[in-house]
Structures are given as structure tokens and as C-alpha cells.
Amino acid sequence: MFRRRQSFPQIVATAMLLFTACLATAPDGVDAVESPATVETEAGPYLRKYCVECHDAASKSGGLNLEQLGYSMAGRAATELWTRIYDRIDRGEMPPPDGTRPTAAETTAFLGTIRPALAAADRAGREVVQRRLNRVEYQNTIRDLLAIDVDLIRLLPEDQQAGGFDNNGEALAVSTEQMQGYLEAARRAIDEAIVEGERPKTETFQVDSVRETKQYFGQGTYDYVDGRVVLHTSADNADYSKISTRDKKVPVRGTYRFRFQAVAHDSPVPLSFTVTAALFAPQGVSQRNVGYFEVGAVPQTFEIETTMEKGGVLQFFALGLPTYIKKKPDVVYPGVGFGEVEVTGPLYEQWPPECHARLLGDLDLKTGTLDDARAILERFVPRAFRRPTSEAEIARYLDLVATRLAAGRTFVESIQVGLVGVLCSPHFLYLNEDRLPAGERVSDLELASRLSYFLWSAPPDQPLVDLANEKRLGSPEMLRGQVERMLADPKSEAFVKNFAGQWLRLRQIGETVPDARLYPKFDELLQESMIWESEGFFREMLQADVSIDDLLDSDWAMLNERLATHYRIEGVTGIKLRRVSLPKESVRGGVLTQAAVLKVTANGTTTSPVTRGVWVLENILGRPTPPPPPNTAGIEPDIRGAVTVREQLAKHRSVESCNVCHKSIDPPGFALESFDPTGAFRETYLRWKVTNAEHNWGSVEKGAAVDSTGQTESGQRFADIREFKRLLLVRRDDFARCLAEKILAYALGRETGFGDRDSIAEAVRRTRAGGGGLRTLVQAIVASETFAQR
Amino acid sequence: MNVLSRRKFLRGAGVALALPMLEAMRPVRLLAAAADSSPARLVAINIPLGFIAENFFPQQTGRGYTASTYLKQGEALRDRFTVFSGTSHPGVDGGHSAEKSFLTAAPSPGARTFQNTISLDQFLAEKTGDETRFAALALGDRTLSWSANGVAIPAEASPAKTFGRLFFNGSAGEVAALERDLQDGQSILDTVTGDAKAIQRRVGPADRDKLDQFFTAVRETERRLKKNELWNRTPKPQVQVKPPRDPAGADLAGRLRAHFDVMRLALETDSTRLITYGGTGYGTVPLIPGVQLGYHGLSHHGKNPDMLKQLELIEKATIEAFFEFLTGLAATNNGGANLLDRTQVLLGSNLGNASGHLTTNLPILLAGGGYKHGSHLGFDARNNYPLPKLFVSMAQRFGVEIESFAGTAGTMTGLE
């Protein structure tokens, strides 16, 4: 009896706390769907017979009081609690094994009674809410609308995530700071789009780095060979390089072309370097990476075309070289030679540029009138609102212009205010969807927006809008064709970056720095390559429609030389990522053993089976773990060696309330212990042994051997990560559901729930029937009933 | 009645906002009592990776405790602060996520459906924010400030930029252009409101919540622009200090000092009375001799002595900069009072033990503000004392009479 009370409930207890927190904020009266009376008459006896004994008003095991709960499942708190009850009974975890057990038929009947009522309640509470664009979508929307390339993201507050994604409508709140940000960003955008005066003259000039470097020539860091400054050291993530175009900054904001020669010196292999566009202001440097390159012993000409701020410079950094050189005679040090840079710009394809022409046509700004303003807004507003607009809507913004003109302001100033106003309208900022009863299909235009923000994080293009206007978008064949077209467009890179980047937490890659003494080979290029690998893997799966099982384990990987070296795989040369067949019995393959994933789930210097285990449960198996129950001190890690993490966790699992979750958390974590915080394979732990505390000297020492064996929750043993991945493949259906659920949540900008389960199951079934590919899954999700529903 | 009521004056001007105080409006009583003319201020600082507990908390409680390793550095200021142990926010867990709740005390910040609530500074700013050019300042690499509907208020990471906002006046042309922009902004927001009202008629309850949020934001932004317009006509205060340059990202102590310097100037010139500072800690190897590892990695020291040693160097540098900040405030005369006595400065962390991601037994220190300081108030390490009570005390001291904060009623026991 006592044991019984402890196990279920520790989880529910925590869950309850969360639910209580939500209850307070759940919107009331969202189409409250009441459970039919039959639920009480049919499900009641089961609960009373098997559950109420512990979950009554007196003992409230785990904080669950069934006597008080009632049969209404409406409202988020009740829906989630009933979902939890459903799942625990469905998985056979409840009622507990040592109590009075219902027969299988009783349980099936009970679940059958609950299911439709719960699904209906969940669907009612989970409509897609009016959601505003997040800042990535905002930036892309402005880009497509105005044909400008300007960084607006930094003007807007960071978006909050919910359910793992930052396009969740509920989390995307609007605050005063947000509104001020919109005002500023819109001003910046409109300012950029409208040009006045003559076309700035395009000029070409040469610039080199000799002035800043010549005093150091021959001392170790810099040399001068064949008219090129040779750099022998690397400074990862630095914001200043003496090799730059600093001596001739660009005169105005615009697009510039930079041509320069580079060459590798004294290196048997090609060397890598990176280039950044930097702006030095009194407040500090702002810097943007414009590319990673490699070069061999034969001088090669490189060309970079990029947008520069006024006064901006390019900076050059060599990668993978020592950070410091104490020069010894007769020793040659590899280095990258950077030649003089030829700068051409600002470049314009036409004058006035496309952005200006698109907005204002060939209007003479000096003689613009209110009628001109009307024509401009009539063109602009429907495009900004992504739908046809009414006369009254145009009039509202025209009025802004009229008032300014009447007050004697210039035409340009006046029209700017009107255009900025349009970009602050909720019709632009929100993905507007008309109120429809739950379950009804959205309009074709709304469907077009859903598709494009899902796959492009950007507004629908003309073909989509045209199809929607002709009401032809909704048919399954048309949708399928459009998804194919959209995925073939480079804009679909947004789906790779924003979906995979958040699902695999790639955005957190820089949050920890591995111990340079234990992991001296870790560098900037490796960290960048890690992101390229995980994004590249996802992209390849999407484009080649590779089976989603390959996300669990695959016989191929996307690698460049830096990663291949890190993984001890031979035969890959160069900085460019390409598809590589993995050797038999390689530990790599699938996302779990990708360095990026292993790095973001580590602590920088140490790894924790718990962190990685929780990650696997949540992101691979679709079973999010509740936080440890309140008032239990988490384990304070002790890595001094007396107690291993494994021993600590074993102790932990002997406590029933911990074991409830840790029996599923720990095993995947153990299998992943074979990988250090940089994602390299290890057989022993490394530690830093201090030999001289005063001078902080020490050496790397081998610690204990890594034990990557374990036993899954259901009792299957594994010896290492390879075997663990095979066991994971057995649960491919759980994974498929988990992935489908995440993609659907991302596609709709809302969390998924019980009411979406049928739709998700159907999408998975169709995917399997169609060969199981990732692209097929995306298609199946778009084709699902839920995708097109309110 | 020689003293013009400020509120009345403003209403007369058709503006429901406060202006900079004009001498004619200053009550005679205040002019007489010089100390009172220095208004109450509040600063809250969070160091997200916390402090090693043994180095932070003194062993003895009450007055006359033996200073801990870290507090030793502020020995000269012993009577100007109180240190608290055994406190935390009820229901706030979630490891690093607890940072979001440090000044809001909203429970379960790590939950998927977490919704934050208003932070102490923003709550107080709602009541008093019209008196100064900036209602509140959110500074640092990470924000502590959250609006009433739980939206993060971006923090300014650059001390140089903060300095510019506080003290640089534009040219006459720039001021005029800004005024036009501010007026245009208000018209734009008016227009947008009209547009949003048209949507309102067509939407259901869930969306109405979203729209309400939009209306609130627009209304509040308009109000702010109006206020900015008034302040735009008042020249910014001038300080005899060289504008700061931003220290490099890894220069942890340098960055702290640069922020603290600007904060002191902001308080001294009464540009704002509320400042939050969210510290850094992620992804850098601090430029401190003897530190070779990343700060975040070090915080997961697992009791490794070498890592603890490096972490201690970072934390010492942090505490040292903090005590310098207090010393600077104490040395600043303000309206006849000393600035530290008029400024409550909270230093704390959302983590009690970063190595284990624990959110209990938080390191908390309150300085200044005219309290009877000099004690270590020790509470139960297993059954923590609710920290929101300290916020209630601080709000009352600030001049806002509240009974409870984030659902916890009552003031801090033992703090007078």
C-alpha cells in the first residue's frame, strides 16, 4: 500500500503543480466542450473500483483527488490531467501491479469511453491562436515584401519558446518593448527601401594590411611573402584582426565586392580561414561572419559580395593554427598569406534599386501628391497584409500621409509615416486567421500563409497567392506539388535552420566552452562544422527523402575533413560538407551521435547521463520528463572520483520516487557516456591533474574507464551505443510519432495534444506506406486534416 | 498655496504624466528636509551562476558574524548590508530557467507552459516611473525584467550605449527630428489601434486575449512616446566623466565595473530610480589570471578542487566589483543624503548551487536603503524562507505599500 502511494503519484504530483500553474492563466470559455453524460456512467465505475482507493479526497495520492476531479475535461488543466491519466492507464503503469487489477477488456472499454470526449475537449482548447510573426519571420517577411537585406532582428526583443519552438502563438506575446521595437524596425526598413538623389558612384580601390602588421614581420605571428601578409596564428572568436581592409573603410552603406588572393604556406594540407564584416563603433564592435574558406599551396583568388555598413571593414582570421608562436630558428610554421584586397562598390543592379521601384514606381518624389500616396498604398497594403484589403483600410493609412502633407512635411517624410504605419498594423504583424468553429478548414489564403511560414518562415510568394485567390490550393495534388516546389526553393533552408536548430538545440552550441586543457583540439572550425553537420544531415534527409529511421541510426553521415578527423574517419578532405558512407560498426550515424547534439547536451567540461537521457526521452521518444519533485535535493555532482556518476545514479534509482523517471532517463545517458563534451569518442575519462598549485601547472591524466553498458526500462541489455541504437530502432514508431508531433507543432505554431493523436498517427501511417522518408512525412503532415484546420 | 500640485499642473496641461520637477513645484517641506529630497532608489543584481555557498555564507548568524571568504572583501561596509541564507522562491525550480523568476518569483519557470509575471522593478516602475526620464533600466547580458504580461524586457548589454542614452544630447536638429518622430509614432499607433479594433469584432475569446495584449502594448507605447516627447525637450544631465568604452566580452570584472559606473551615474543624476542588472556567465573564459576554463563549465565543478579554485577567482572578482560599487554609492552625496542610504541594492542568484542546478538556499545580500544592517539572517536550509517577503519589504521601503508579492504575503522577518 505504501509503495503504491509513492510510485504513481510522484510524477503526477509534479505534473499537478504545473497544471495548477496553467489553470490560473488558461483562457476561460474557449468553446468549452462538456463531456457527454455517458462518460460518467460508463467510466465512473472503473475509476471507483480501481483508482479511488488511493486517489480519494483523504489520501489524494500524488495530489490526484479523483473525487473532486469530475468528468469535465474542458480547459487546459483538466485536459492535460485526463491525458496523463489516460496514458498511465494505457501504458499499464496504473493501476499499480500489486493492487486489484482490471481485466484487459475492462481497461480497453474504459479507455474507449474516455478517448472521444478527451479528444474533443483537447481540440476545442487547442485552436490555432492569432499569432504574431517571430523575429526571424518578421525579418524574412520584410525581406520578401520590400526586397531589402537589412538586419532587423537585433532591433526586436528575443522571442520566448514554448513547447520547444519560438513560433508558438501562446508564447509570442506583445509588450511595450516589442511595440517600440516594431516601430523602430519598420522605420529602419522603410528608410532603407526608399532612396533619394543620384546613384552613388561605384568605385574600385585597393587596400592591404601592411601598415598594421609590418612592425611584426619575421617575429612569429606575421610575415610578408610575395606581396602577401602571412598569418601564422589563430584567434578563435576574436573580434579584432590586424589583417583587414581597415585602412580604407567603405564610404556608404551598400553591397560591395571584395577580391583577394590567398595561399597556404608550409602546410602539407590546405588551410582554412574565415572572413567577417565588422563595424567598429565607440560602443564596441559588431561583427558578422561572411564565410569559411580553404586554400592550398597554389595562390587562389577569392571573391566575396556582401552588404556593408558605412565605415565597415572585412577582417581575416586563419583557423586551426596555434594561438601563439614562440619562434625558434630553422623551424617553419604554416600560415595563410592574404594579398591586397580589391574593393568595388557600392553595387546596384539598377537605379533606383528594386526595393525603391517596387514601392514607389518611377514617381518623382519632389512632386508627389496625395493621389500618388493613395496609389502607393493601394499597391503596398494588400501585399503587406497578405490578402485583399478594403477601401477603409487603405484610407486609414492614407490619412496618416494626408495629415503630414497638410502640416507642410515633405512627400517623402509623409509617405514614410504611412508605410511605417502599415508595418505596425496587427494585420501585418499577426498571421491573421478568421474565426472559424474548431474543425473547419481555413481559407485558401490562410492555408498559403501556413504553408509558407512552415517551410520558408516567410510570406507566401506570388504563385501561392495566385493559387489561393483562384481557390485551387486546397486540393491534395496541388498541395503536394506546392510542397515539392517550396522544398526545392532555397528559402526552405529556413525550415532546416529553424526546425532542426530548435529540435536539436543547435542554437545553444556556444553556451559552453570545452576545457582547452583536456580538449585542446576543439576550435571554432569544429564548432561551426558541428552545426553544418546536423543541419546538413537534416537537409539531406529532407531533399533525398531518406527514411526517418536514419535519424536514429544511419550508415552515412554528412562530414567535412574537420569532422572526419574528430570522428577518426579517414578519406575525407576539405572544408566542404559531403555525404560519406560510414565504416561498418562505426559509432556514428543518426542524430544522437552527432557532435553538435553531444555538445549541447554536455556541460562543457563534463557530461551528465541525466541531461543526455532527458534529451533522448523528450526529443527522440516523445516522453518529456517532469522536473524532479519539489523538496528533493537534486544530486550534487561529485566528480572527484570516489563516487562515479553511475554509482550515484544507482543509489538514486534505489529510491522508488526517483526510479519512476530515472529508470528511463539513465540508460540512454549511459550509452552516450562514450562521448566527451566535444562529441569525440572516448574509452576513458580524462582529468586535469594539478602538479603545481601555485603556478597552476598540471597535466592531463587518464581517469576511470567509460562504462557505456546499461539496461533499458523494459529490461533489454546493451553493451554500447551501437547496441543501444539498435534497441532504439525497435521503438521507431515512438520516434516517428515524436518527430511528427514536433513537426506538426512547428507547422501550426501551437503545442499538440490528445486531440491531434489520430491525425499524427495517420500522418505516420501514410509516411510508412510511402517509404518512410522525411520529405514524405512533411507531405503527410501538410495533407493531414489538422494542418488545414482552425 | 505657493506650491503647485504637480498632478494638477499636468492635468491642466492636458497630460496625465509627470514632468521633471520644477523648483516652483517642489513642496517647501521637501526643500527644508534635505534628506527627503533624495528619492528612494532600488537596484537588483543577479549573478546567474551564483556563488560557492561555503565562500559566500558566514557560519554564524546574527550580528558580529565572522566574515566569509567573499564577504571579507566588503568588511569596511559590514554595517551597510545584510546577508540572508536559507531563502528561495517557493515553487521556483528548473535550474538555469529560474533566472527568469529571480525578480518575479513566478513558479515552475522550466515548465513547457510557463508564463512569467511582472518583475519587482517593473511593478514599482508602474507606480513611480513617470518621475524620471527612464522609468527603469534593464542592463546586463541577460534580462531580469519582465512586463506585466510576462514578456521579457531586453537588457542593454553595452555600458557605452547606456551612457549615451543617459547623457548624450542630440544637436538641435536631432532633437527636433526626434520630436517629429515621437509625434509621428503616436499618430501611427492611433491608426494601428483603429485597425486592431476592426479585427476585434471578428475574433473569439482566445484571440481576444491576444488582441487585448496588443491594445495594452500600443496604449502603453503611446504613453511612453508622449513621455519621451516631454523629456526630449529637457536637456539631459551633464556629468564630468569620460564616456566609457565597452570592455571585451571576456573581461568579466571590467564589464561589471563599467556597468556599475554607469549605474551609479544614472542614480546620482536621478535619470532613473530602478535598475536591474542580469550578469553573464555563459560561453566565455573570463580574462582573470589563473582562470583557464569557461565560466559555465566551471560552475559544474563537481567538487573538483582545481575547478573550484578557478571558479573562486571569478566569484571573488565579481564580489570585489560589487563592493566597489557600494563604496562608490556611499561616497556620493545626494540631496544631503548619502546615495547608498537612499538606494536598496540587492545582490543574489537564481541558483543556490549551480553545480547541481539547485534553486534553493540562494545567496542573497541586501545593501543600503537605510535599513539596520550588519546581520546575517539565517533561515532553514531544508525548509527555505520565502524570498518574496524580502521583495515586499523592499517595495514598502521604496514607498509602495504592498502586502504581498507573487502570492506570498508579509515582510521579511528580522529586517528593519
Instruction: Report the top-level CATH class of the largest domain in chain B.
Output: Alpha Beta
CA radius of gyration of chain B: 22 Å
- Total beta strands of chain B: 14
- The helix content of chain A, as a percent range, equals 40-55%
Secondary structure layout plus pairing:
The complex is a heterodimer of chains A (790) and B (416).
Chain A: H1 2-23, H2 37-50, H3 66-69, H4 76-90, H5 104-125, E1 131-132, H6 135-146, H7 176-193, E2 203-207, H8 210-213, E3 222-225, E4 228-231, E5 254-265, E6 271-281, E7 284-295, E8 300-308, E9 313-319, E10 335-347, H9 354-360, H10 370-385, H11 391-406, H12 411-424, H13 426-429, E11 430-431, H14 444-455, H15 462-469, H16 476-488, H17 493-503, H18 524-543, E12 556-559, H19 561-567, E13 578-581, H20 595-600, H21 609-619, H22 645-653, H23 656-671, E14 684-692, E15 697-705, E16 710-711, E17 717-718, H24 721-730, H25 732-748, H26 757-769, H27 774-783
Antiparallel strand pairs in A: 1-11, 2-10, 3-4, 4-10, 5-8, 5-10, 6-7, 6-9, 12-13, 14-15, 16-17
Chain B: H1 6-12, H2 28-32, E1 41-46, H3 53-56, E2 62-63, E3 81-85, E4 87-88, H4 120-128, E5 137-140, H5 159-167, H6 172-200, H7 205-232, H8 252-268, E6 274-278, H9 295-299, H10 305-330, E7 333-334, E8 337-338, E9 343-348, E10 364-368, E11 375-378, E12 385-386, H11 388-398, E13 404-405, E14 408-409
Parallel strand pairs in B: 1-6, 1-9, 3-11, 4-12, 5-6
Antiparallel strand pairs in B: 2-11, 3-10, 7-8, 9-10, 13-14
Helix pairs in contact in B: 5-8, 6-7, 8-10
Please give a structural write-up:
The complex is a heterodimer of chains A (790) and B (416). By secondary structure, chain A is of the alpha+beta class. Chain A has 5 domains: 2-125, no CATH class; 131-199 and 357-432, no CATH class; 203-347, Jelly Rolls, CATH 2.60.120.260; 434-488 and 731-790, no CATH class; 512-721, no CATH class. Chain A is 42% helix and 14% strand. In chain A, the strands form 6 sheets. In chain A, strands 2, 3, 4, 5, 8 and 10 form a 6-stranded antiparallel β-sheet that branches. In chain A, strands 7-6-9 form a 3-stranded antiparallel β-sheet, with no helix packed on it. A two-stranded antiparallel sheet of chain A has the order 1-11. With 416 residues, chain B is an alpha/beta fold. Chain B has 3 domains: 1-30, no CATH class; 43-162 and 242-409, Alkaline Phosphatase, subunit A (3-Layer(aba) Sandwich), CATH 3.40.720; 169-235. Chain B is 36% helix and 12% strand. Chain B has helices at 6-12, 28-32, 53-56, 120-128, 159-167, 172-200, 205-232, 252-268, 295-299, 305-330, 388-398; strands spanning 41-46, 62-63, 81-85, 87-88, 137-140, 274-278, 333-334, 337-338, 343-348, 364-368, 375-378, 385-386, 404-405, 408-409. The longest helix of chain B is centred in the middle third of the chain and has 29 residues, at 172-200. At the A-B interface, helix 1, strand 1, helix 7, helix 11 and helix 12 of A face helix 5, helix 6, helix 7, helix 9 and helix 10 of B.
